[in-house]
Amino acid sequence: MIKSIPFIAAFGLIFGTTSALASPSHSHGTAGIGHPGDPQRVDRTLEVRMGDHFFEPKAMNFKPGETVRFVLKNEGVVLHEFSLGEAAAHVAHQKEMAAMFQNGMLSLTGAHDMSKMGHGAGDETMADMVHDDPNSVLLEPGADGELIWTFSEQTELEFACNVPGHYQSGMVGKLTVR
Ligand SMILES: [Cu+2]
After folding, report:
1. pLDDT at position 175, please?
2. For residue 163, is pLDDT > 80?
3. Residues lying with their CB under 5 A of ligand 1, a single-atom ion
4. Is residue 102 a part of any domain in this protein?
5. Separation of 53 CA from ligand 1 center, angstroms?
6. How remote is the CA of residue 2 from the centroid of ligand 1, in Å?
7. pLDDT of residue 10
8. 26: in domain
9. What is the CATH number of the domain that holds 111?
10. Cα 76 to ligand 1 centre (Å)
11. What's the gap in Å between 7 CA and the centre of ligand 1?
């Protein structure tokens, strides 16, 4: 039963009102995985390369309390994501992402159909609006990005790309906090 809840939440987000899309408040149960880190208190910087379809490094190990700056580089020719979370959260997130691709809100090149949103985007990118989980970064081909995260407790997580099919092609690795 528990597994069905994120899916219902995702369904509401994708097919809900314009205002729901503009300010998505969904979360995938970030309790336990940690929280966004303070840029002034970074303990460690780790470069993560993303390609079609792989991550380098392939596994990560951190300590509870550690604040990590992930420097992300999409060296591929399609959109990729870096998302930290529990395995079940990635499954739920993949359903959201699949719906966004079906709607045309996201595309593999990052070229989005603005008319689907019903209002102007301003300085925000489409990816920001439809994909604002604090524990995920979506990168267009060739783009760089950053995620600063504090791991709070011992846990076994995964870092993954939830662009449709990528997780299944191997864009997932173990992230151990111990
Ligand atoms: Cu990917």
Report:
1. 98
2. yes
3. 80, 161, 163, 166, 171
4. yes
5. 6
6. 27
7. 40
8. no
9. 2.60.40.420
10. 9
11. 21
91-145 pLDDT, tens digit per residue, is 999 999 999 899 888 888 875 654 444 444 444 555 555 567 899 999 999 999 9
Whole-number Å distance, alpha carbon 28 to ligand 1 midpoint, is 19
- Per-residue model confidence (pLDDT) at position 90: 96
- Domain assignment present for 56: yes
Q: Would you say residue 18 lies in a domain?
A: no
Which amino acid appears at position 101 of this protein?
F
- What secondary structure does DSSP assign to 101-133, as a single string? HHHTSS-TTS---GGGTSS--TTS-HHHHH---
Helices 4-15/87-103 angle, 10° precision = 20
CA of 51 to the centre of ligand 1 (A): 7
Distance CA 165, CA 125 (A): 23
Predicted TM-score (pTM) of the model is 0.76
Q: Which amino acid is at 107?
A: S
Structure tokens at 24: 């998505």
